[in-house]
Amino acid sequence: MSKYEKLLKGKMSEESFQKLIRLENEKVMDFIGEFAEHCNPVSLYVCDDSEKDRMYIRQTAITKGEEKIIYLKNQTIHWDGYNDQARDKTNTRYLVLPENMERMKALNSIPYDEGYNEIMEIAKNIMDGKEAAVLFFCEGPTESVFSIPCIQITDSFYVAHSETILYRPGYNHFLHMKVKDDFFKFIHSAGRLDERGCSINIDKRRIYMDTQNNIVYSMNNQYAGNSLGLKKHSMRLAINKSGKEGWLCEHMFLMSVLNQEKGRKTHFAGAYPSACGKTSTAMIPGEKIVGDDITYFRKIDKEFRGVNMEQGIFGIIKDVNKDDDPVIFANLMKDQETIFSNILIGPDNRPYWLGCGMTTPDEGDNHHGRWKKGDRDEKGNEVPLAHSNARYTIRLDYLDNFDSDAFEAKEGVKVEGILYGGRDSDTTVPIEESPTWKDGILLKACTLESETTSATLGKEGVRTPSPMANLDFLSYPLGEYTMNNINFVNGIDDPPKIFSTNYFLKYPQGDFVTGKLAKKVWLHWAEGRIHGEYDAYDTPTGKIPIYNDLKKLFRELLNEDFSEEDYNYLFTFRCTQWVEKLRRTGAFFRKIDPGTPAEIFAYWEQMEKKILAAKAKYGDEIKPGAFKG
Ligand code: OXD
Ligand code: MN
Predict the structure, then answer these.
(1) 495 lines ligand 1 (CB under 6 A)
(2) Closest C-alpha to ligand 1, atom 4
(3) Residue 517 falls within a domain, yes or no?
(4) Are 359 and 324 in contact (CB under 8 A)?
(5) Is the CB of 291 under 6 A from ligand 1?
(6) Any idea what the CATH number is for the domain that residue 566 is in?
(7) Would you say residue 105 lies in a domain?
(8) pLDDT at 456 exceeding the cut of 60
(9) Of the ligands numbered here, which is closest to the C-alpha atom of 313?
(10) Are 436 and 543 members of one domain?
């Protein structure tokens, strides 16, 4: 019996209350009760997995004005505030106990008591006068070894609605689960709202994470990367939990590569820093997508198995158009449940965004309010027709290329290939296989970098380290996380092969060497290697394709010529560039986590020596096939 039963009964309908009672879970009651008392909503609505409750959530988001129906009646628009358009890294912090402050100092941390008191002060009565929703979800397939049950309390029906699209329903999982006290808890409030339904107290926007108790507090915000417990907050809790329990939570898509000729289906997962080709790889025409953002991996029967922990996509909409992203574009034009955020709604009540490939109107409603072309914001900056981080939220099973069997599998799918994809205009080759898993983590995953382009602010060509494309979400030190990645495959009979990709090599005069679909060729070469096909040349850092195999793949898959000249340019090993990359990586690890095990630095130093020896023997630029390892 929870001490909060009376309070909860007084704040909810008998139907909602009975849903809680049926769970027979005091821990659940205590969590909901504590925040029902502290945040003090007028009422709480408890959702089970029914369609009726899902519809209630969506309808309430509309009735309260947090979303509006647009031209197609199953589509809605939601605007986050003008200053709440991306993840707030500064105010996202870990609550850390005094004895762990030193270990966690490179991660944005705050002493536990100080942070807890601050967030509880902000949360006090924050839901005053509002209704809140209580939702149950399950990350990964329900009632499986991957499942992580989650509870979300929120006073934003947009947040609740988004999560019903993005995550598997979990009330029934809670009903049946044997271990009653191991679940993630998320408490969110949008705080006081303006007339457009946007959060007012952005200066009090805080996201505090307690990995000791698996609870995240998120206050005074709405952008999904800040507000949705199950998205990036849960990821940080899961990274911490997986580190302790010996599994992995990675910022990776999961896909199925289909070899029509051989009748094979091979699963790949891939990590790419933003704007390095993550979604476009997962959506390569002719292959299948299982998940686009977060994958959990476990060892099952000595196999490396993975699941998509989500069920929907919260995708960047910029540049989604009928040529570049035909599958997503077609789905955004259909009358099916979709939430658009921070795009433009034209006078015709239809959606428009940057790079949509349609003629866009000169006025409408956007993230800044009523908008006319040329309008300026409070700081004098011109307001674009939509925000560049505007998004769409849809279910994955709308997509024709969705692999539902792989998605449903309770034991996940056997993953045989891992891709780490960076962006660099002049160093790494388009595809390279790592000799071993450990080399792959230290050479492909840890050295990932993205490079600024003319499309981003600031100087072009600046490389930003992005180990595992997961740095923003690490909840324990980078060196330990790297070692856990290395050691994860101990006991696995046939670990996945690791490959690096780089779709962004340019000719010195600045043009890309290959077209956008060349990535299909690189991927199919990797698929063949996994199945023992294709010979390869050694380089100091791995194995690369032989020209004739690529020539054939270009012809078969894309019906394109691929010249030997392009091949030689793309697959040249550039010694100086690689040494610089290793030095940047080493310096970054030293800065971010001086406690990184010495063996990691020693490995990079050895590799540098190997590359310098190769340089002495073969010259700075080594043509494919010349290097004999
Ligand atoms: C991200 C996202 O920020 O997936 O990584 O939205
Ligand atoms: Mn992501």
Answers:
(1) no
(2) 293
(3) yes
(4) no
(5) no
(6) 3.90.228.20
(7) yes
(8) no
(9) 1
(10) yes
Under DSSP, is residue 289 helix (H, G, I), strand (E, B) or coil? strand
Range of the domain at 569: 250-309+408-622
Residue nearest to atom 6 of ligand 1 (CA): 225
Please tell me the total number of residues recorded for the chain in this structure: 629
Whether residue 228 is found in the same domain as residue 300: no
Q: Position of tokens 């600045």? A: 510
Q: What is the pLDDT of residues 297-312, one digit of tens each?
A: 999 999 999 999 999 9
Distance of CA 528 to the CA centre of its chain: 27
Whether 79 is in a domain gets the answer no
The confidence band for 511, taking pLDDT boundaries of 50, 70 and 90, is confident
Ligand 1 atom with minimal separation from the 293 CA: 4
Residue 225 CB less than 6 A away from ligand 1: yes
Residue whose Cα lies nearest atom 2 of ligand 1: it is: 225
Pocket probe for ligand 1: among 274, 316, 396, the residue whose CB has the most ligand atoms within 8 Å is 274
Question: Is the minimum distance from the CB of 312 to ligand 1 under 6 angstroms?
Answer: no
Name the band, by pLDDT with cuts 50, 70 and 90, for residue 462: confident
Q: In angstroms, what is the span from residue 225 Cα to ligand 1's centroid?
A: 7
- How far, in Å, is the centroid of ligand 2 from the Cα of 418? 17
What pLDDT shows up at residue 453? 67
Distance, in Å, from the CA atom of 420 to the CA atom of 384, rounded to the nearest integer, reads 33
293 ligand 1 Cβ < 6 A = yes
Catalytic residue list: 276
Does the pLDDT of residue 25 top 70, yes or no?
A: yes
Question: How far does residue 30's CA lie from ligand 1's centre (Å)?
Answer: 31
Report the atom number in ligand 1 closest to the C-alpha of 316: 6
| DSSP assigned state of 469 | G
SS3 94: strand
Determine the pLDDT at residue 272: 96
- String of DSSP letters for 530-550: HTT-S--EEETTEEE--HHHH
pLDDT of residue 454: 61
Amino acid at 29: M
Q: Which of 536, 526, 530 is nearest to 557 (CA)?
A: 526
Domain end (from 223, 245, 267): 245
Are 352 and 264 contained in the same domain?
no
Residue 407 and residue 401 in contact, taking contact as beta carbons nearer than 8 Å? no
**392 and 435 share one domain:** no
CATH code, domain carrying 341: 2.170.8.10
- In the reported structure, the alpha carbon of residue 271 is separated from the centroid of ligand 2 by a whole-number distance in angstroms of 9
Distance separating the N- and C-terminal Cα atoms of the chain: 68
**What is the CA(136)–ligand 2 centre distance, in A?**
22
Q: Do 333 and 438 fall into the same domain?
A: no
Residue 285 sits in the same domain as residue 323: no
- Judge if 255 and 169 occupy the same domain: no
Q: Which ligand is nearest to the CA of 389?
A: 1
Task: Flag whether pLDDT at 23 surpasses 80.
Answer: yes
Which tens digit of pLDDT belongs to each residue from 44-86? 999 999 999 999 999 999 999 999 999 999 999 999 999 999 9
In a domain, 101, yes or no: yes
pTM above 0.90, yes or no: yes
Q: Residue 1: what pLDDT?
A: 77
Asked if 316 and 426 count as a contact pair (C-beta separation under 8 A), the reply is no
State how many domains the chain has: 3
Q: Give the pLDDT score at 425.
A: 87
